[in-house]
Amino acid sequence: MKAIYFLLILLFGLSATAQKTQIHYLSGTGADHTVEWDFFCSAGMNSQQWTTIPVPSCWEQQGFGAYNYGHVPFDKRLKETGRYKHQFFAPTDWKDSEIQLVFEGVMTDAEVKINGKQAGPTHQGAFYQFSYTVSDLIQFGQNNELEVLVKKHSDNASINHAERKADYWVFGGIFRPVFLAIKPKTNIQRVAVDAKANGQIKADVYLKNHLKAHSLQLEIADMSGVRLSSFEQTELNEETRIEGTVHGTHPWSPEFPMLYQATFKLIDKQGKLIHQHTERIGFRTIEVRANDGIYVNGVRTKLQGVNRHTFHPRYGRTSSKAISIEAVNLMKDMNMNAVRMSHYPPDSHFLDVCDSLGLYVLDELSGWQTPSYDDEIGRKLVEELIVRDVNHPSIIFWDNGNEGGENNTLNDDFGEIDIQQREVLHPWQDYKKTNTVHYIDYSYLVNDGFSQRKIFFPTEFLHGLYDGGLGAGLEDYWQRMWNDPLCAGGFLWVFADEAIERTDRNNQLDTDGNHAPDGILGPYHEKEGSFYTIKTIWSPIQFEKKYITPDFNGQLTVENRYQFTNLNQCRFEVEWLDFSGPDEQVKNKAIVRQQTHCEAKPETKTIVELAPQNDWQNFDAFRIRAYDPYQRLINQWTWPIKTAKAKAQELLISETNTSPQLTEGNGQIIVKANQTTYIFSKVNGTIQRVLKDGTTIPLSNGPIFVSQEKRVSKVSHHSNQEQCSIRVEFENSDYFQWIIGQDGRLNLEVAYQPVNNCSYAGITFDYPEKEVTGLKWLGNGPYRVYKNRMKGPDFGVWEKAYNNSITGYSDYIYPEFKGYHSSLYWAKLIGKKAPGFTVYAHSNDLFLRVLTPDTPKGPAKTQLTYPPGDISFLHGINAIGTKFKDAENLGPQSQPYFFNSKKIHGGKLMMNLTFEF
Length: 917
Description:
This protein is mainly beta. Helix content is 11%, strand content 38%. It folds into five domains: 19-183, Jelly Rolls (Sandwich); 187-281, Immunoglobulins (Immunoglobulin-like, Sandwich); 300-537, TIM Barrel; 541-640, Immunoglobulin-like; 661-916, Distorted Sandwich (Beta-galactosidase, Chain A, domain 5), CATH 2.70.98.10. The chain has a nine-stranded antiparallel sheet with strand order 51-52-53-54-63-60-59-56-57. Strand 26, helix 3 and strand 27 form a beta-alpha-beta unit. The radius of gyration is 33 Å and the shape is elongated. The protein starts with a helix and ends with a strand. Residues 1-15 have low confidence and may be disordered.
């Protein structure tokens, strides 16, 4: 009886398995799981010999063939080919099945044979899933040999123009997985689903041998398996429509990516299941309303998006689900709600992750600036694109090529194939209802051009390069775009730097000069400064700008920029903070945590009540962290309570010591106080040398005014038992004054008038870079800023060791050490041989400039002219441009400083600092 019982279980299990499509991988499943195949490369590295290669992979990353970037002319490329062989066993229980051999992606032409026989026509097109029915070619109960001849460059010229001539690295190989799909002879070939936000659903089901089936059933269940509705269709054809209304569903959106299971069952006349197929779907409605906007589930939306290539420094275009999850999470962490697939369809698991975590997707047919795919190959690839991707709720548009790379004869083909009738875009162009122009100047945003009524959303804007663009300029752009009802958002260029590990150069990273270091992230997804700028500007929670004064009542105005989320679904955490001094180990002290809540419907404002501590003015700052309904950190904001002057006075406790002594000689003014010796120039009053306990601290040659050269009119000094002072006056009545008291600290007071329309303003000193090992400071950090990229850094105590990273170019250590830092309270420069020094600001809103970032070769638009010297204290700093735009074209924040001395009390900018050695 036990034997019969187990036999029944075994037979039932085999039957259940046979009713579903079995997936049998011949390759690995991704970059993190590969299978060795036999391989022969025709030319380049390690060619002309049979060896093995992991599949899937790009063969260059396994040490074969040759590297080339897409800009290289075709006649200068090595057009290598690769021959693959792999054996697989086909069990006899597959004999009565339909077997499809599926390739998820091969670059670029693929000729496939099974046991020496052609599986079908050579497939052309790198980024598209294709398959062959190979049931008649397989030998059951024994090993079978799969052979694939891959050509890196296509025999079809239009494919080379669309895919191989582009602004990205060009690879070759079977770079996506290969598998067998085993189905019953009577089966569901595929399904195409259209599920609307109101619960209405229709599906086109494509059947094989449909005359042997009696009915088709559709069951809708939530992701936990609870069935919501079921429908049946008994009139079957090769293409069968089944439809109905599902009650109790919740719409899909990036804010609430609700998913459901749609299970299709093919039933025979006896009521037995022949075959079943399950799709994961979302109910949502996309409308593009002419002269109005993009509506999702009846709500007008704005796309906060980024362009993304499928790329990894080690794997090239080969990816994995883990890489997709990481990428989408990083986008969500930047408060993005959209991604554009530039410039080809991604791996299907990337779309799966967009469905489940919530991102709008623009899915793109390849094409590059000149008309690309010819009519025949184009129609075939459009079909392959849509057949694979049609059911993803995340996809809201199809793109027909990039920047003029469309074939206009294909425009209507998308609608003929897509059951959802998604709109087609021509990225970079004014097309039908939309204007997706690329890389506009800020002035374009007034929308007074020739497309005033079109829905405007640039599918590429603010082109990054090194540390320029992306976050720089975004606040000005986004303010105009957010307030323009006809603007539907936009897409930044680009997600990550595309530096490849060159296997022919000892895995050295190569960005092909300035072609590929364009990312918000580094090549391994290191977070650059723009990451936090974008996160802050695109936060769906926006606090009104506010400085905390003694009259603060604990109320903050907050704006809800969500489309579907009430702020009562979010969580707010408040911290009241004390910050350490320069020599203390603990950075944040006396933390008091609270929770607060508020209610605001989407796109409305409200008041957040903080319930301050009774002694709240004794704290240094308070910080708010906001979390979305899934407990993802939306952003954090910190408001200083004390001014820089108040904090400096708190930390600078004076100790009475010996009276300072002032002497003169050899063109110098020398002051000694509390074991410290200061040497100043008698000609211009600048500090020349500092000695502490006999050790030289190499701060020198300052202060020098940076906005314009000033002529000294008078140098004077005064001393008594309390203090020594040295005053330097200039011809326009600007001045600075040194004051040394009994505590030995060096105080500096500066008053000056900067030149109008200056790029930066303040004072600077020399300090040799070779003597710097680190920095600790209280202010905004840890990332540097530019005039047009102020948001992102947060107020607190920060530390970082010296590095010489050039963003997107070398080292890739972030945050970078050199550059501008905002809202200085105090800073401790850590020296290598000498002990360095600490400086305290008594003036608000000062910038600290630490050394001069090295500049890579490339367009001057992202290169900055820094003030002279090494350590600067500034009232203003300059802006940075993008790859294609000079800074002055990026909006108000990118302009030079306007200074009218008659409209400023006293006509001078004031600065007070204390140096402690």
